[in-house]
Each structure stands twice: as C-alpha cells, then as structure tokens.
Amino acid sequence: METPYPKLMDPSKTRIGWIGIGIMGSAMVSHILAAGYVVTVYARDHRKSKDLQIKGARTANSPKELAEVSDVVFTMVGNANDVRSLLLGEDGVLSGLKPGGVTVDMTSSKPALAREIHEEARRKDCWAVDAPVSGGDAGAREGKLTMFAGGDSKIVEWLYPVMENMGIVRYMGGAGSGQSCKIGNQICAGGNLVGLAEGIVFAEKAGLDPVKWLQAVKDGAAGSAVMRLFGEMMIKRDYKATGFAEYIVKDLGMAAEAEAALPGAALSKQFFSGMVANGDGKSGIQGVVSVSRRLNGMS
Fold first, then answer.
1. What pLDDT is recorded for position 9?
2. Which ranges does the record mark as transmembrane (predicted)?
3. Residues 105, 221: one domain?
4. What is the distance between the alpha carbons of residues 22 and 6, in angstroms, rounded to a whole number?
5. How far apart are CA 253 and CA 108, in angstroms?
C-alpha cells in the first residue's frame, strides 16, 4: 500500500533535520529555529554548529542518525557528489528516514540526480523534493530567498509552512524541475554578470566615472537586479563572497549538458572559469569583472 501523504506541519511535532551549515545554510536554519521547529543538524566538524546549538539546535553524528530523528531532512551542500553521498550513501539520509519522511535538497545539483533520489525515496515509501535557491547570503540572512521546487505538488504544498520562513517557494513541476529552473536562472545571472562587468570596464576605458555611469544606466533598459546587487561592488573591487565563483562554473557546466545550443552560457562559463584558474574560485561572483580588467591590461 502506498504511503499516505504526511499530515500538515505542526511546529510542536514536526522534526527538522539539516545538513549543510555554511554561509547560507546557517542563516536558513536560524529562521526555522526562530519559527519554533525542533531542528537537528549534522556537520562533520561539530564546532561549526556551535552558534546554532546556542539557538536551540540539536546535533547528530551521521546523516543516517539525523534522519532517524527527523521527519523532514534538508540538504544544502556543495555539489552533486556531496548530495549523492549524503542522501544515497550506505550511511545516508535515506538509509535512516522512516516511511512517510521527506528529503528536500536545496543544493544546486543535477536534474537527473534529483529524479534518481525521488525514485529511491519512493521505493522506501518516502518523498523527495528538489528545491535549489536563488538570492545569495543576503537573501538567506533576510529570509528572502526564492526556492525553485520540483517533486510531488502535494508534498511541496505540505512543506510551505517551514519553507516560507526562508523566502518564496515557486513550484515548477515534477522531480528535477527545481534543478532545471535553477540552471536556467544561472544562465541568465551569468550572462548579466559578464555584461555588467564589460560595461563597467568599457566605461573605465572610455574615461567615464564608473559610479556616474552606473547611476545613469541602472534605471534604464540595462538595469537589473544583478546591477543593483553587484554594480558598486565591481566598481570598488569588492569581491567578498556572496556566492562562490566556482559554484557558478559548476552550474553553467550543467547547462552545457542540456540538449540545447547555449553559446552565451558557454562564454559566461569561460569568464568564471578564468576566475577559478586565477585562484579566485572562493571569491564572489562579482569578481568576474577582474577577468575583463585583466583582458584589457588593467590592474
């Protein structure tokens, strides 16, 4: 008999598990704790969870142990290999999650892997949702992320009470649809970032004040969220990480695996790969302007 859909969320009874407490994950967990949920976190280094423990989070010693004490397990990690190991591994989440449990992978990962996880979850009478996010660390801190959700629509709807503490949920369709949506998002964001970088470099080479140039164009047709978020940082050479350059290289690499001709995405990937090759993979994505500056012989 097929496992029934879970009952509606009740903060006093629903147990949340979380894996991935980096820059964004820690902020996201904080919002869930503040909403009254019981949260257990797993990190290879327990010292990383100290601040969350102060806020009330519990800890587990393995993904399996975390799943055994959770009704819903969120993952927010680095790449598809991490996701596969943490969810499908011998000591992974799905080895410990009880029937009716739910996994929510918020990592930017592969649509095919999201479908594989969904199929394996159903074999265990569990549910899986892929819900990668957009909004960076600022969106995570402010609870204003956009989450692109793929999976069973009723399960995604059931998750709204907890997920809406982190931002806006956009349901995109069946398993893998959230990941496909995120890749499309990154194609647009990458192209916008490269265009903005070249616009700034052109303004500087043309002898314009780049700050005045940015003010002049930001409210016209060239204006965008990317320009508002990263324009001043590019001009000031502030490459503090809001989203790692190496991660957008990963995302644009997944775009290259799609059955579509995407020359613009390929060009954007080359720019960000230039950052990584220069040792700037852990810098913010706005640092792509440094690649354009080097190409133009600027310091």
1. 72
2. 16-43
3. no
4. 29
5. 12
* 143 and 191 housed in the same domain: no
pLDDT of residue 279: 93
**For residues 188 and 208, what is the distance between their CA atoms, to the nearest angstrom?**
27
**Distance separating alpha carbons of residues 97 and 102, to the nearest angstrom:** 8
Residues 216 and 249 in one domain: yes
Question: Residues 110, 182, 250, 269: which is the catalytic one?
Answer: 182
pLDDT at 159: 95
- Residue-range definition of the domain harbouring residue 234: 181-295
pLDDT at 2: 65
> Do residues 134 and 255 share a domain?
no
How many domains does the chain fold into?
2
Residues 36 and 129 in one domain: yes
Strand, helix or coil for residue 226: helix
In the three-class reduction of DSSP (H, G, I as helix; E, B as strand; rest coil), residue 82 is classed as helix
Q: Which residue in this structure is represented by tokens 């508002």? A: 228
Residues 6+ apart with CB under 8 A from 98: 68, 126
Task: Supply the CATH number for residue 138's domain.
Answer: 3.40.50.720
DSSP 272: H
Say whether both 92 and 230 belong to one domain.
Answer: no
182 is catalytic: yes
Structure-block tokens of residue 18: 């979380």
Indicate the residue among 109, 143, 174 that finishes a domain. 174
Q: Report pLDDT digits (tens) over 164-191.
A: 999 999 999 999 999 999 999 999 999 9
Alpha-carbon distance of 76 to 193, in angstroms, equals: 24
| Whether residue 282 sits in one domain with residue 169 | no
The pTM of this model reads: 0.91
Q: Which residues of the chain have pLDDT under 70?
A: 1-2
